[in-house]
Design a protein that fits this description.
mainly alpha; Four Helix Bundle (Hemerythrin (Met), subunit A); 82% helix; 0% strand
Length: 188
């Protein structure tokens, strides 16, 4: 599969350069650079975008729950001052579990951001390296260099894909867990 993609991209690059060798630093090299940028953008959409989407969902969930808990603190007397059962929030254990899970949820969000930063840095490095490739005068060397960058892009995708899948799953599980605990906490 990797060889087939490399062959197709090599063919695209050769078609772009063929007949345009006399202007190796002109707009045709820009077209080759744009091809690499498009591949990097596709990788970003596959690797980073789904993580950011789930991070936003979890962040919204955390915000809703924190607002609820803050409101709950303001509306309730301190447990030592209460006489009798809490009529507004009878499921005190579930509410405590909810409070205990919030730091775990924030940690998962933080780890997801670190992963996105790592992927973004790797992809940005490819664009910089691609610009170095096209700065050479020799078109054949530039093409080989760009092909190496595209192969490296595929390696980055293979390296980070399992982490992305695991992170997305962790984010989704935490969202479900928080919602379940939240429902238990407010259940009357």
């Amino acid at each position: 599969m990797k060889a087939a993609i490399t062959f197709i991209v090599a063919g695209q690059i050769l078609l772009l350069v063929y007949g345009q060798v006399q202007t190796c630093h002109g707009s045709d090299m820009d077209t080759i650079r744009h091809l690499l940028e498009e591949k990097v953008e596709e990788a970003f959409k596959v690797l980073v975008h789904p993580v950011i989407t789930e991070v936003n969902r979890l962040n919204q969930t955390i915000i809703i729950i924190e607002k609820f808990l803050e409101k709950r603190k303001l509306n309730n007397l301190h447990p030592a001052e209460q006489k009798g059962k809490n009529l507004i929030f009878p499921n005190e254990d579930s509410c405590k579990n909810l409070t205990d899970y919030l730091p775990k949820a924030k940690s998962i969000v933080e780890n997801a951001f670190y992963l996105c930063s790592d992927i973004g840095g790797a992809l940005s490095g490819l664009i910089v390296d691609g610009l170095d490739c096209i700065s050479t005068i020799d078109v054949i060397k530039a093409i080989k260099c760009l092909l190496n960058e595209i192969n490296e892009l595929q390696d980055i995708g293979q390296k980070y894909e399992p982490q992305v899948v695991n992170t997305i799953q962790n984010l989704k599980v935490m969202i479900v867990t928080l919602y379940d605990l939240f429902e238990e906490c407010i259940k009357v």
